[in-house]
Amino acid sequence: MLRVPKPRVSSVLLQFIRQALEMVIIRPTKKLHSQLPIREVSGRSDSALGDWYVNRVVVARQPLLLLVSSTSLLPMVVPARDVRSLPDRLPALVETRLHRLGMHADLIAAELRSMVPVVTATTVDRSILGTLNDFAKAMPYYLDSVTPGPKSLAGLEAWLEQTPCHSASIGDRVVFPDRKAPEVLGTKWLADTSTPHEGDRVH
Predict the structure, then answer these.
(1) 0.90 exceeded by the pTM?
(2) Is 104 within a domain?
(3) Whole-angstrom Cα distance, residue 50 to residue 64?
């Protein structure tokens, strides 16, 4: 019998295919659809932090965007200015957020490499929407009375990230976002050595 050799796919080609399939998805609530047009997108984000769900909330007369990571429930809170540019700004916002969380620079760099392109699509997970709503309801209490002294959005994020949460899609019985985010980043980027970029290994 004539043996036909199996075609070999070079690591360079595998890396090219992988990069071509990478994306990060922003999933806005309906109230933001006019500012963040929706595309038909199948699948999920390839980053460790997954899709980013986003809603517009107003707290103390201040319009804010509340974003939540689908894999860790890590919250981000930013002013609701120039909403249409959010896909372009998302990697920089995530970078700043992870620095505040104290993540290692190599893990942050690996996450940012996976965040191109950024696309918008409809919400698909009611559990994450529930977390968005829970955080939105909690935000006024922080700004009004929970902690004394000056308030900041970074302080609000730090307070929210310690909130025990639950998500059916994540599977953990209780999720603390400030602990879950480092876990998913480490699991994704420390273990993902199948086809690394040159110099991308995290030590």
Answers:
(1) no
(2) yes
(3) 21
